[in-house]
Amino acid sequence: MLSDLLRAELATEGIRVAAPVSREGGAGPTGDAHVVIDGWTAALPVSMESRFSLKDGKLWLENEDLGVNATPIARPRFYDELSSDGIPMHKLARLHGAGVLATTVVQSCVRYSPDQRCRYCSIEESLATSGTTRVKTPAQLAEVARAAVELDGVRQMVMTTGTAASSDRGARYLARCAAAVSTAQPGLPIQLQCEPPSDLAVLSTLRRAGAASIGIHVESFDDAVRSRWLPGKAQVPIEEYWRAWEKAVEVFGWNRVSTYLLVGLGEDPEALVQGAARLIEMGVYPFVVPVRPGKNTLAAKDGLRPPSSQYLASVSLRVQHLLEAAGMDAAGQSAGCAACGACSTLGASELRAAVAVSVGSPKQKTTPASHPLALGIQRSLG
Ligand code: SF4
Fold first, then answer.
1. Crossing angle of the two packed helices 309-326 and 269-282, in degrees rounded to 10
2. Ligand 1 test: best mutation among 44, 337, 345, most atoms within 8 Å of CB?
3. For the chain, give me the number of helices (H) and strands (E)?
4. What is the DSSP pairing of strand 32-37 with strand 64-72?
5. What is the separation of C-alpha 99 from the centre of its chain, rounded to a whole number of angstroms?
6. Is the pLDDT of residue 373 over 90?
7. What is the Å distance from ligand 1's center to 45 Cα?
8. CA 208-28-2 angle, 5° bins
9. Is 84 helix (H, G, I), strand (E, B) or coil?
10. What residue ranges do the domains of the chain occupy?
11. What pLDDT is attached to residue 31?
């Protein structure tokens, strides 16, 4: 089994690969290739400077074959289909991981001015290259969902949106899209993602539209981080998020609500872990994700780099322990980023055990325990 130690290194350092399924821009923290490494479906940063590469169906560390099966995810067949109004389906939704259909229903954001946008986000950049359309209609999404299920066996769908100027912040349009998809594909679990709507009754509308789960992404509990890296979203007080999560758990149920918590923005790790503990206590899954700014982002221009693998591993381990103690697991989300897991190192088995195995078992083919990164993680897990 792939060690969690190695997963943290791959998630932060990235990989040299030309992958058929990848994304260079879009909402949120992006810039990745989608691969399967020893059964782990991962969205990893593409980096020509990485020591890791894929060759001959194996994962390599510099010139060493790590003995781990690794393959890029194949281009899905629905990418070559057209919607009935003539739009290539790959412009309407994308495959994430091996079985997740993901779309941004409105590819623009009221917060996209350079002084307001989340600095790691590039939601409008793919419009400039005609890689997507500004607004996906409910009918188009229903067609894509049907094609992706029938041709490629997609198992769940994620719909996100740029933030709208209206008080629902785009949630009502998400509800229309979800209703169309759930009518066309009744068994397909759907997660919707939006900012906290000011009228929380909208959350019931989203549930009735067929959403199985919801992501309301705070990104960070650290006010200094929020002001620096997500100045527009930081204008929404944290208290609004707590109110929205509480209502969302009431509407969607325990472990059917999630939020991104980004690692690597200079946050206080204690605040992150304490916030995660409070979220878990109320039934919300804290999806811990390393920030890895895509090349077209302001954050990349600012020189923001991914966090160290040691730091990511230690924070992920602490949150993973809290999740395990609460009996909360990602599969319970049914749909969404936490259920997918490709962008995170959460959900892995025990990091500390992985370090011990990498030291003690000759069968565990992974980064050598004497490697400086491995030693660093052992120290940080202490
Ligand atoms: S975790 Fe979310 S953003 Fe990442 S690949 Fe999966 S669905 Fe896409």
1. 20
2. 337
3. 13, 13
4. antiparallel
5. 14
6. no
7. 13
8. 95
9. coil
10. 9-14+74-349
11. 62
The SS3 of residue 49 is coil
pLDDT surpassing 50 at residue 374: no
Question: Mean pLDDT across the stretch 329-334?
Answer: 94
Phi, psi of 84 (to 5 degrees): -65, -15
Q: What does pLDDT average to over the chain?
A: 87
Q: Model confidence over 170-201: pLDDT tens digits?
A: 999 999 999 999 999 999 999 999 999 989 99
At residue 27, the pLDDT reads: 52
Does the pLDDT value for residue 285 go beyond 90? yes
Domain 9-14+74-349 has CATH 3.40.50.2300: no
Residues 6+ apart with CB under 8 A from 94: 21, 23, 101, 102, 103
Amino acid of residue 367: T
CA of 379 to the centre of ligand 1 (A): 30
Question: Could you read off the pLDDT of 21-32 as tens digits, one per residue?
Answer: 766 655 544 568
Instruction: Check pLDDT > 80 for residue 202.
Output: yes
CA of 9 to the centre of ligand 1 (A): 18
Ligand 1 contact via 102 beta carbon (within 6 Å): yes
Cα–Cα distance measured from residue 204 to residue 107, given in angstroms and rounded to the nearest whole number? 24
Two tokens, residue 318: 């602490």
SS3 350: coil
Ligand 1 contact via 89 beta carbon (within 6 Å): no
Residue 213 main-chain phi, psi, to 5 deg: -150, 170
* pLDDT confidence band for 6 (50 / 70 / 90): confident
Nearest by Cα to 377 from 326, 316, 299, 335:
316
Q: Is 144 in the pocket of ligand 1 (CB under 6 A)?
A: no
